[in-house]
Amino acid sequence: METENHPTINALTEPENLSDSLFSGDEEQTGTEGLKNEINPNSSFSSQTEARLHAKAKRRLRKNSSRDSGRGDSVSDNGEGSRIIPTSPKSKLMDRKSRSGKGRGLPKKGGAGGKGVWGTLGQVYDMEEVDIKDPNYDEDQDNCVYETTVLPLDEKAFEKTVTPIVQEYFEHGDTNEVAEMLKDLNIGEMKCGLPMLAVSLALEGKPSHREMTSKLLSDLCGTVLSTQDVKTSFDKLLQELPELVLDTPTAPKFVGQFIARAVGDGILSRNYIDSYKGTVDCIHARAALDRATLLLSMTKNVKKCIENVWEIGRA
């Protein structure tokens, strides 16, 4: 009996019969998955979390697609953002149209709502009425008259401004134009310096320039200059003769001729020369006064001699 049971036990323990065990087929696969789950129990939970975050990101990008359309952002199939060049020729980032999704997409406030904008094209503003109840209101403002004020010229500004006017006069010879230009300037107390400046420029010029200077002084006297301004100017010329001689050795002779011509034109009194008798110490000033006295003491054709003092008619 014992010998008959040995083959049966051997049959159950042979390797060929192991394929018919409990872990064969599908049951064997489920067994391997169970082993994996036992090794990493959080794998299924992490995959669900990634899917949920992926879906949430897609919903957020889809919701903001209309707002961010100007930047050309889009979402690919795998959920990653990609950059697409916008087809519009103008970038919407610098556009002043509303991006809130409301309205007709027109510019804000008709294009007149930005900083430093004065209003729409063609807008006309009404006259602003003064509020009497304004704490800054002043009654004197209603009767206030505004005028343009030209500051008086100082000595340096006078010489810098008037010198080009006299030099241009030597070119065109129009005394009226010089008078109009001088009226636009606030010469002030520098009026007496005008004859002195004109004579100083004429000393270095041609005889025609000296004749034009005498004519200019005669025409300006009574409109721009006064006889007192002319007298004061010639007084300064006599005082400045020592310095003028350094540049123009014939300055005393020419200044004497200017004095004689001014007396002949009536812009200097005949007592002007007599007032200097016995009071002049400068030899150059004395020579100028003697020259003027000589020209005025001629008994024959005095007027003609004074008019031709610059020898213009002897060409």
Write up what this structure looks like:
- It is a single chain.
- The chain has 315 residues and is mainly alpha-helical.
- The chain contains 13 helices and 2 strands, in the order αααββαααααααααα.
- Strands 1-2 form a two-stranded antiparallel ribbon.
- It is elongated and about 135 Å long.
- The termini are far apart.
Biggest sheet layout: 2 strands, antiparallel
> How many DSSP helices?
13
How widely separated are the two ends? 177 Å
Low-confidence stretches: 1-39, 72-77
N-to-C SSE string, H for helix and E for strand: HHHEEHHHHHHHHHH
Let me know the number of strands.
Answer: 2
Shape type = elongated
How large is the share of residues in beta strands? Answer: under 5%
- Radius of gyration over all CA atoms, rounded: 55 Å
Helix content: 40-55%
Query: Averaged pLDDT, please?
Result: 75
Labels describing this entry:
single chain, 315 residues, mainly alpha, two-stranded antiparallel ribbon, 2 strands
List the helices and strands and how they pair.
Elements: H1 2-13, H2 26-39, H3 43-63, E1 73-75, E2 81-83, H4 155-172, H5 175-183, H6 193-203, H7 207-220, H8 227-239, H9 241-247, H10 251-265, H11 271-274, H12 283-296, H13 302-307
Antiparallel strand pairs: 1-2
Helix pairs in contact: 4-5, 4-6, 6-7, 6-8, 7-10, 10-12
In short:
This protein is mainly α and 315 residues long. It is built from 13 helices and two strands; from the N terminus they run H-H-H-E-E-H-H-H-H-H-H-H-H-H-H.
